[in-house]
Amino acid sequence: MPPAEKSKLGYTPPDGGWGWVIVFGAFISIGFSYAFPKSLTIYFKEIQEYFSVSYSEIAWLSSVMLASMYAGGPVSSILVNRYGSRPVVMVGGLLVSTGMILASFGTTIMHLYLCVGLIGGFGLAFNLQPSLTIIGTYFQIKRPLANGLAMTGSPVVLFTLAPLNQWLFDSFGWRGSFLILGGIVLHCCIAGALMRPVNKHAQPKPKAEPAGCNGEAAEKVASSEANSQSDKLLSKENKEESKSQGCVQKFIDLSLFKHRGFIIYLVGNVVLFFGFFAPVVFLAPYAKHQGIDEYSAAFLLSIFALTDMFIRPITGILGNTKWVRPRIQYFFSFAVFYNGVCHLFCPLLPGYSGKVVYAVFFGLAFGMLSALLFEVLMDLVGAHRFSSAVGLVTIIECGPVLLGPPLSGALVDIFGDYKYMYYACGVFMLVPGIYFFIMHYYNYKKLDEEHRQDVAAELRTCEEAVQLRLRQDGKTAHETDG
Q1: Which helix (H) or strand (E) holds 148?
Q2: Where is the Major facilitator superfamily (MFS) profile domain (predicted)?
Q3: Whole-angstrom Cα distance, residue 376 to residue 373?
């Protein structure tokens, strides 16, 4: 297991204890944040017929909800930095519940856009980002595992909600179902109540004891592979942060736009999010379009979620090993590329059995990517800057998240077939996968060079200090002899 990373948190995270309760709370909160918009696709066909709208218009419902969840990232970051994760998550649960209850009385599709999309989406933003942030305050060595377990909440909740929503619809219609879902989502408030702030004084950060210059340098070289990228760029970040003390910087760290790793992550994610959610959103409607019955179509989402459920913790365990964690961004690049390959092959798999095969392989790919998505960002910028980083990333990503499903729905409207939509999503994932492989190789190479330069500079400083001490000792000895 790699040694503990140094951080600027000012304390040593407990890496356990109440932290596992935090992971459970995040499991619930993150689960609803990601699974809720996907599970609502069960109602799309019926709502589409009820309001007489097109594929692209009904796709805006989940798209607006996801985009609002991402657009609310900076607001959530500011509130978390000011008040902590617990109250923000509880308010988020209340917002989602309110949105669903109001939507059950909807009379137009615009009413649903407002209630489910905007109000519900902002509530999900207040559930997602604080849950991710608080994990970084409780975990350091075991952080990839903790993030992987917390992100498993999404497929578990989706696996449960997909058949439940179909049963609710058959029993109560979409209006009654939305009313009941408004009560179910209040579990996020319970999850938020569990998110007790970390006790920063329980395990104070140990002070470094003086050591020989050569020994210290050798130790740093030996542990260089285990240190996060944010630690390797520590001196540069200090200079950047010293210039970033404006009013805005008190709430969100804009100096991240000068961070090389953050920019690489942001550019690739903007492209991949055009094809990230649409394949899940249209999986059940695609199956129904091919003549598959409603329950079998809904079961595809359960198969997808079940596979996703198992691969996320496995990905977290693999990401926490000494072989993968030092180069975890290559693992992330592979996950993005693998998603693209799955979407390109989806239209080539005929019949219901083909869709089952696609659901399994897509579940593996989606779960790997989701488990690594925020862990890689935290590895790049460090836990101390993660809250601001995820807020900036989500507000920029809300554009492709908003436009992705409707553009995909427009392709279905134009061609009358879903296969072109899946081809487009495959390209949107394949291109950033290749981009990440290239840019992460470049970034790792630059970081290694900078680290070697830092070690060499420290060695020179140590040698100069030793020589100065020897000269002082020699001078003192000469004066004593004189």
Answers
A1: helix 143-151
A2: 19-444
A3: 6
At 208-265, the pLDDT tens digits run 444 434 444 433 433 344 344 444 444 444 444 444 445 455 556 778 888 888 999 9
Q: How far apart are CA 346 and CA 139, in angstroms?
A: 38
CA distance 357 to 449: 44
Q: φ and ψ at 7, to 5 degrees?
A: -145, 170
Q: What is the mean pLDDT of residues 113-120?
A: 90
pLDDT digits (tens, 9 = 90+) for 145-161: 888 888 888 878 877 88
Q: Which two tokens stand for residue 295?
A: 């329950």
Quick: pLDDT tens for 344-372: 999 888 889 999 999 999 999 998 998 89
Q: Which residues contact 249 (CB under 8 A, 6 or more apart)?
A: 255
Task: For helices 55-71 and 19-39, give the axis angle rounded to 10 degrees.
Answer: 160
Torsional sign, CA 8, 141, 80, 65: positive
d(CA 172, CA 379): 46
Q: How many residues make up the chain in this entry?
A: 482
This prediction's pTM: 0.68
CATH of the structural domain 19-199+250-451, one choice from 1.20.1250.20, 4.10.910.10, 3.30.70.120, 1.10.8.100:
1.20.1250.20
